[in-house]
Amino acid sequence: MKPLGLFGGTFDPIHLGHLRMAIEVMETFELESLHLLPNKVPPHRPQPLASAEQRLAMTRLAVEAVPGLVVDERELKRPGDSYTVDTLEDVAREFPGRPLLFMMGMDSLLSFTSWHGWQRILELASLAVCCRPGHRLDSDSLDVQLSWRLGEGPVTGPGQILPITTTELAISATDIRTRAKNGQRLDFLLPQAVADYIQASGLYRADKAS
Ligand code: ATP
C-alpha cells in the first residue's frame, strides 16, 4: 500500500517553498496523495497573522489545479491546540494499515524532540525531511535520540527519518508577510492566485487590519 503523505504547517501564507517540496516528496516516495494540513493554533511558534479561514482559502487556491495535493481541514475543525500527534492518531484511525509519511523542512527536524508527543509521532509515522537553506543535517545538530533512525527509504513502516535532497528555495512566509506589509510585489514567491488574494484582501498590509 502506498504511503499517505501529510504536510502540516501554518501556511501564513502557503508559498512555492512548501509546494515545491510537496511535489518532490510525492515523486521521491511515489505517493498518490499528500494532505496539506493548515493548523489552527500552532503550538511551537507565534500565532498566525492571517485567520484560519484566510489561510485555508489561500491553501485551497494554491492546490486547486495540482493533482495529488489535498487540503485537509481536520486541524482547523478540532478545538484547541493543533498537535501533530493528535492529527496523526486521527489520520491513522481513518486510514487503517496505510503507512503515514509526515513531511517537514530541515529546520523542523532540528527542533523535533521539543514537539509534544514526538516519540508517539514516530510510532505512527515516518518523517520525510526536505532541504531548507540555512539548516544543515550534521552529527552536532541532530538529537542523538533521532540520529539512529536516519535512513534512505523506501517507507517500510513508522519510525524512519528519511532526509531527501530537494530543491533549495530560500522562501519563507515571514519574508512574504514583511514584503506584503511594505506593499512590495509577491510575484514568483507564491502561486499567483495566492498573491492576488493577499493583494485584493489587504492581508498583512501595515495600513489594514486583517
Ligand atoms: P514562517 O516564516 O511564518 O515561520 P514558514 O515559511 O517556515 O513560515 P511554515 O508554515 O511554518 O512555513 O512551515 C511548515 C513546514 O514547511 C515546516 O516544516 C518548514 O520546515 C517547512 N518549510 C517552509 N518553508 C520551507 C522552505 N522554503 N524550504 C523547506 N522547507 C520549508
Brief summary:
The protein is of the alpha/beta class and 210 residues long. It is built from 9 helices and 6 strands; from the N terminus they run βαβαβααβααβαβαα. The chain has a single domain, classed as 3-Layer(aba) Sandwich (Rossmann fold), CATH 3.40.50.620.
| Low-confidence blocks of residues | none
Specify the overall morphology. globular
Beta-strand percentage? 5-15%
Can you name the CATH architecture? 3-Layer(aba) Sandwich
Oligomer: single chain
The overall number of domains is: 1
Strand/helix succession: EHEHEHHEHHEHEHH
Distance between the termini: 43 Å
Number of E strands: 6
CATH superfamily: HUPs
Helix content: 25-40%
Biggest sheet statistics: 6 strands, parallel
Radius of gyration, whole Å: 17 Å
What fold name stands as the CATH topology? Answer: Rossmann fold
Strand order of the largest sheet: 3-2-1-4-5-6
Mean model confidence by pLDDT: 94
Description:
This protein is α/β, with parallel strands linked by helices. The chain has one domain: Rossmann fold (3-Layer(aba) Sandwich). The protein has helices at residues 16-28, 52-63, 74-77, 84-94, 106-110, 118-124, 144-147, 173-181, 192-201, and strands at residues 4-9, 34-38, 69-71, 100-105, 126-130, 161-164. A six-stranded parallel β-sheet has the order 3-2-1-4-5-6, sandwiched between helices. Strand 2, helix 2 and strand 3 (69-71) form a beta-alpha-beta unit. Helix 2 packs antiparallel against helix 9 and helix 4 runs parallel beside helix 6 (118-124). The termini are far apart. It binds adenosine-5'-triphosphate. Adenosine-5'-triphosphate binds at residues 9-12, 17-18, 21, 104-105, 107-108, 130, 132, 169, 171-174. One of its GO terms (molecular function) is nicotinate-nucleotide adenylyltransferase activity. Its EC number is 2.7.7.18. It is an enzyme of class 2 (transferase). Pathway: Cofactor biosynthesis; NAD(+) biosynthesis; deamido-NAD(+) from nicotinate D-ribonucleotide: step 1/1.
